[in-house]
Amino acid sequence: MNLQTNIPLTKRSSNLIDYKSKILLLGSCFVENIGEKLEYFKFQNLVNPFGVLFHPKALETLISRALISDFYSEEDVFFHNEQWHCFDAHSKLSNASKADLLSDLNNQIDITNQQIKTSTHIIITLGTSWVYHSLETNTIVANCHKVTQKQFKKELLSVDEITASLKNILSLINNVNHNVQVLFTVSPVRHLKDGFIENAQSKAHLVTAIHQVLNQKSPIENRNSYYFPSYEIMMDELRDYRFYREDMLHPNETAINYIWEKFIEVWVSNEAQKTMKEVESIQKGLTHKPFNSNSEAHLKFLNNLEEKKAVLKSRFPNMRF
């Protein structure tokens, strides 16, 4: 008896992720789940330099400003609830000091610039088509920072608007990095604050726009760009509330691990998967709690662990435990 429908997946034949890869992850909170997995297994990666960004316009703004080194100034930040904020960044960058916020923002602009130019893989996870349009600045913001809602107009990006934004993102990236692999995915996180029907419409716009870009007849903008079905795996393979956290919105650890395993199956090289097992052995060893920390057995265990770390570091100098 088959109790599950499976999304058909095909392993990539080239340009797979390995321990020489440099990976940039941008987008919704789900991309941070994948980033945590990559970090645990000691890949070279950078996750959300501007914090979580939910919609394509926010990502387009970050990439555009980063690649032309369009640094932030005092006119780009504002004071609210005892902190300085920037509408282009997540609140995790907000700061009680204006100078520190500007320094952090511009440092992340530099980092993003270099990372886009040197990345072998860029993973972009889109969360929503809903955006907030600032009435004062006539711009779409990445984060409202709890500013009163009357200062914004809530809008649903059309498929055409998202398509244009994604095309611009790919064009910007390909202009400075011809060989990078760009992986699009849609976050399985449910944005039910927008409403059940509204969330479904939002996700549909994202999926449709991505595939319009990937399936276009002219391959110039979508060179080396692909889709990974995180959203579909959650909706069609898992299909059960037991795979959500208590909030019924976010995938739980079981779901994240399941989708991660599918991602590995498609995008991580077989050789890298062998190295991942070595890394995991060390990671588990580092969390080991002995009954007697001075016992001969434990001291031998620690020595063996250091030897394993030394072997991996000799092969991958960037690896840090």
Description:
The protein has nine helices and ten strands. The protein is of the alpha/beta class and 321 residues long. The strands form three sheets. It has a five-stranded parallel beta sheet, with helices on both faces. The radius of gyration is 21 Å and the shape is globular. It starts with 21 loop residues before the first strand and ends in a 6-residue tail after the last helix. 35% of the residues are buried.
Arithmetic mean of pLDDT: 94
**Radius of gyration in whole Å, from Cα?**
21 Å
Number of strands: 10
Strand numbers in spatial order across the main sheet: 2-1-5-9-10
Dominant shape = globular
Helix content: 40-55%
Structural class: alpha/beta
Helix count, DSSP H or I runs of 4 or more residues? 9
Query: How can the largest sheet be summarized?
Result: 5 strands, parallel
Strand content: 5-15%
Q: Which blocks of ≥5 consecutive residues have pLDDT under 50?
A: none
N→C terminal distance: 44 Å
Instruction: Give the SSE string.
Output: EHEHEEHEEEEHEHEHHHH
